[in-house]
Amino acid sequence: MLGWLALLLAFGAGFATTGWVMTLDRQVRARFEGVQFRVPSRVFSAPAILYPGLDHEAFGLRETLDRLGYRAARSAEELPPGQFFWKGSRVRLHLRAFPHPTRPEPARQVELRLAGRVIKDILERPSGRRAGAVLIEPEALGAYYGPLREQRELVGLQDLPPHLIDAVLAVEDQRFHTHPGIDLRRIVGAMLANLRAGRVEQGGSTLTQQLVKNFFLTPERTLRRKLREAVMALLVEARYEKTRILEAYLNEIYLGQRGSTAVHGVGEAARLYFGKSASRLSVAESGLLAAIIQSPNGISPYRDAERAVARRNLVLELMLEQGRLEPEDFEKARLEPLRLASVTPDPGDARYFLDLLHRQLTETYPADQLTEAGLRIYSTLDARLQRIAARALREGLEAIEKRRPEAVDEDPKRRLQGCLVAVRPQTGELLALVGGRDYRVSQFDRCSQARRQTGSVFKPIVYLAALEPVRGDPTITLASRLVDEPLEIDTPDGPWRPKNFDGEFHGEVNVREAIERSLNVATVNLALEVGVPRVVAMARRLGIRSRLPAVPSLALGTAELAPLELARAYATLASGGVRPDVQTVEDVVDSTGAVLERRELGFERVLDAGTAYLATSLLEGVAERGTAAGVRAGKLRGPVAAKTGTTDDERDLWFVGFTPELVAVVWVGYDEPRSVGVASSVGALPIWRRFAEEATGGRVRGAFPRPPNLERADIDPQSGALALRGCPERRTEYFLPGTLPTTVCPDGTGPGGGFDRVHRRFLRWLRENL
Amino acid sequence: MAARKSLSFGLALLCSACAVAIGPPPPRASQLAGTGDPRFRASQDLVLEGLEADGRGQTERARSRFERALQVDSSNPWAYLALARHHLDAGRAGRARQHAERAAVLFESLDPPTPGALVHCDGLRGAALALEGRDAEARPLLDAAARSAPAIWGDAHLSPDELR
Questions:
Q1: Which of A226, A506, A659, B1 has the fewest CB atoms in 10 Å of its CB?
Q2: Rounded distance, CA A55 to CA A49, Å?
Q3: Please, what CATH class does the domain formed by A145-335 belong to?
Q4: pLDDT tens-place string over residues A148-192
């Protein structure tokens, strides 16, 4: 009876064990045969371009190379990709290959010849042929992580140098190729060593066990967990080839931190520590990676270089002992100094851009594809301009707080905020976007998500509507006079009496004066003359999508818009009436190298080039003599057009400025609107100026496109008449064909002015001679 | 009335054709290499690299080079012209027309001007319109381009080498 019971129990236990093992086996197969790794998608900047004539100091060549992980070599001989040798006025640079499926760039060696701050020549090596322009690979801006925030670059065993594999096996599992998943000799050895030490000093886990632990189990140290680990290791070994297990291990192993993200796998670790692909690791570098597996943070070479090198040398000794390294290679590797890549900077303020891009991409791709599928997203962001923008905004906000201590709020969430967005007007490429003061405190992007009253930066849209001829003549030309006198408009909320910033009325003023002084009443009068619906229609054509109440106060910027919308609207002016589609992505490539998406530069002519030029000319005047004249307070020279905007009680400070090649919008204010206490020209303008000066090096090139059919004439700014000889004041203006003034100065009256002139001369002659 | 309209239209066509025909021959992109400021020079070099790639059938590389040319100098009309030609070859008529029009505006506002460059803009616009089936609008532009540069536009097509 007892025997039967024992047999039954044994049978039951065997049945339960078999079931348990089968469950574990299912888990193993599910992991190995499903998606093994979740690889976050990475976002890259646009590539930087070097060319003769470039100011390499303003460009920040050295810093760019550092950020990209290029290392300074000790000599120009045998310069491998990813290194440079800079001596005096010569820079020998071995650019890395850029592996893109459709537009790859080969690794190439060039010599930059410098003359002061400028690159004088770029010569191909070794041919000595002159190169016109050279592309540097894009900078990594960040990645879209899942909840685990793991970063890895998948590698295949065939891509890895044998010495890296040898180094890992030497220190982590020297009998990997012979044991069945668990190594009894190692377990016994570790137990004896731990008993002797009186504490846990050595682990007995094979590489397979480590992989199993990372894939399936928690780090708890219980017998039950160890048993599961051992059984699963045996199952993995029974089912899969050693090479597959090793490859999985090398991609899974945790190897350190980059900020808040965990670096997994030798591919990513090679980038983190040495700024290069794992395929190009030297013996010593491989030794270091193998050395830090035991305790990536404790042995981090960034934290304790001496300890890291000592441990590396221990790995090299093990390799020598196990016959994995020749003595001469060992000596060479042991003496190799530790040369680490600069720590890849945190994406910092580019995170607002990454979030904007994420919102756009999730319209096309499922969110988990972005966090797990290892896409490579090449963006339009200019890494250099992004840094300049972030600095300009930060320093500008600090300057306001220094000037006005009462603007300071100790609560980080209630601090003065701002944003800056820059676009290339001709192509619509988004070049820089800083959506707030500190991403860690607030992730709300004030450039693309906030809608705020725009104040006077809306006014140019009114002038555009008035300058555009619709069924005949335009409402105004650059010679027109506007009325700036008390005005009362009935509204459902009672009478509205617009006032000027200075509280005065200026009577009749010319168009330039009205916009250069940002006169409210003259602008409202003009909007009424043009018709508010036409102003709304013009805003829509310029790409503004936010709600636009069709009321007269719209002319003064009561509509709430996003800075990015304004950037697009002004880009249309800068590019001569052609509205660009705002571009954030160049292309998206999946993990197999297939291009999923390719940008199309798109634009549409929404304004006659002449009208766009006239409005731009008005805004050039604002930057020369008007409320935005402060843009010239520094070193900025060349064509600039701009407009300030300050809303009631100085709650929102705006500044929009553009050159033929760059549009930038700055907004400053509090998230919960309250007075900043300064006007736009004091708060927002200096931020734009800092940005533009550094971005352009102070010299704006090019010219706003002026169509050849515009007519040019001198006018009398006081009357708007054509200025003839004898007219006391004159100013040159451009006019759309057929819109020249019909009166003349002095005292001319219309097309008969020529006759009047003769008549006046005759009368003067009579007075003087009779 | 209709006869008068036709006559005016015919005269206008003739005049525009004459105006083009008596103009200088269209320049090639390589003629501008090494001229202008550093950014234009670098941009033009990238345009030339792109045209060379286009000629070899490396269309993606070519397009990327033209876009990089705009990254360096977004006002370079040659980059838009090369992109227009590229899009036309790829059958993207709308994009080709947009880029050719863009190039025309930039060429017109150049100081000093690039004589003859507008022939390519007109030719490409014409070819794009023809691809869209808008033959009536395409024909005058293509005819004018062919009269002005028969060796290039005689076949109503612009190859990368002809532009380079």
A1: B1
A2: 12
A3: mainly alpha
A4: 778 888 899 998 999 999 999 999 999 999 999 998 888 888 888
Q: What is the number of structural domains in chain B?
A: 1
Would residue A172 show up in a list of annotated catalytic residues for this protein? yes
Q: Taking CB atoms and an 8 Å limit, are B68 and A49 in contact across chains?
A: yes
| Contact with chain A for residue B30, Cβ under 8 A | no
- Do A42-143 and A372-450+562-707 share a fold? no
Q: Which of A172, A516, A650, A693 is catalytic?
A: A172
Cα–Cα distance for residue pair A373/A379, rounded to 1 Å: 18
Yes or no, beta carbons of B109 and A54 under 8 Å apart: no
Would residue B2 count as lying in a domain?
Answer: no
Q: Which residues on A lie below 8 Å from B98 (Cβ)?
A: 602-604
Please give, rounded to a whole number of angstroms, the shortest distance from the CA of B142 to a CA of chain A.
22
User: What residues in A contact B99, CB-CB < 8 Å?
Assistant: 601
State the average pLDDT over residues A622-645.
Answer: 95
Which tokens go with A619? 């805004």
The one-letter code for the residue type at A466 is A
pLDDT at B34: 81
Q: Could you identify the residue written with the tokens 């040659």?
A: B78
Is the confidence at residue A239, as pLDDT, over 80?
yes
Q: Which long-range contacts (C-beta less than 8 Å, at least 24 apart) are formed by A240-247? A: A240/A32, A242/A176, A242/A177, A243/A157, A244/A32, A245/A207, A245/A208, A245/A211, A246/A157, A246/A165, A246/A176, A246/A207, A247/A155, A247/A156, A247/A157
B12 within a domain of the structure (yes/no): no
- Token pair recorded at residue B110: 């150049």
Give the CATH superfamily of A459-554. DD-peptidase/beta-lactamase superfamily (3.40.710.10)
Chain centroid to CA A532 = 37
Give the three-class secondary structure for A489. strand
Report the gap between the CA of A102 and the closest CA in chain B (Å).
6
Range of the domain at B67: 27-163
Annotated domain spans of chain A: 1-34, 42-143, 145-335, 372-450+562-707, 459-554, 711-769
Distance from CA of B111 to the nearest CA of A (A): 9
- CATH 3.40.710.10, applies to A372-450+562-707: yes
Report the CATH number that the domain containing residue B48 is assigned in CATH.
1.25.40.10
Distance CA A288, CA A107 (A): 26
Q: Is residue B56 part of a domain?
A: yes
Please check whether residue B38 touches A, CB under 8 A: yes
Chain A residues with CB-CB distance to B60 below 8 A: 102-103
Please tell me what DSSP assigns to residue A722. E
Cα–Cα distance list, A574 to A467, A508, A542, A636 (Å): 16, 29, 12, 17
pLDDT digits 0-9 by tens, A552-607: 999 999 999 999 999 999 999 999 999 999 999 999 999 999 999 998 888 899 99
Q: What sections of A375-484 are H helices per DSSP?
A: 383-403, 459-467
Nearest by CB to B38, from A54, A135, A576: name it: A54
CATH architecture of A42-143: 2-Layer Sandwich (3.30)
pLDDT tens track for A371-409 = 989 999 999 999 999 999 999 999 999 999 999 998 888
Which residues are CB-neighbours of A218 under 8 A, at least 6 positions away? A225
Asked about A456 being catalytic, the answer comes back as yes
